[in-house]
Amino acid sequence: MSPIFQCRLTLLASLVCLPVFAETVVPLQGQTPQQIQQDIANCQAQAGSTPSTTTSTAQGGRVRGAATGAVAGAAVAQSRSNDFDRIGDDLQEEYRQERAKDAAVAGMVVGGSRQRQERRQDRRNNEQASANASSAYTSCLQQRGYQVTP
After folding, report:
1. Is 129 strand, coil or helix?
2. Per-residue pLDDT tens for 4-41?
3. Residues near 5 by Cβ (< 8 Å), separated by ≥ 6?
4. CA 2 – CA 110 distance, rounded (Å)
5. Among 24, 58, 92, 131, who pairs with 81 as Cys (CB 3.0-4.6 Å)?
């Protein structure tokens, strides 16, 4: 039983997803249609009371990594190029730019890898939250005298 999620974009670029359950609910104690609707709504609210929240931290990992790498590469190249007093300023600048580019590429690779890891972890967290919400929903309805089938 995996619930379907309805997602809404909220302030501060966070995504709030609440489960929408698609199961068959069979009343076992002669509940009225109004009571069934009320119990389903209450159990959905109870199961969705702790929505999963995913922020946009898994965005732009490559760009951030490239920028960080370029800055670090330029700083290292600057300190090393100062040791080369014999070569001209143009060659020193070219050396610094090449080191910055190399470090930016490395930073982009690392940033992309971190971004993929964050996304995989977010997916695992959302799957776990979905399973927990589904279990809470089913348990709530069973306690109120219903049989729940997928």
Report:
1. helix
2. 444 343 333 334 444 455 678 889 988 999 999 999 99
3. 17, 18, 19, 20, 126, 130
4. 34
5. 92
Contacts of 127 (CB under 8 A, 6+ apart): none
With a CB cutoff of 8 Å and minimum separation 6, the contacts of 57 are: 118
Question: Which tokens is 44 given?
Answer: 């959905």
Domains of the chain: which residue ranges?
4-57+133-149, 58-116
pTM to 2 decimals?
Answer: 0.51
* Dihedral over alpha carbons 57, 116, 113, 73 (to 10 degrees): -30
The 3-class SS string of 9-63 reads EEHHHEEEEEEECCCEEEECCCCCHHHHHHHHHHHHHHHCCCCEEEEHHHCCHHH
Tokens found for residue 132: 């927990």
Q: What are phi and psi of 54, to 5 degrees?
A: -120, 120
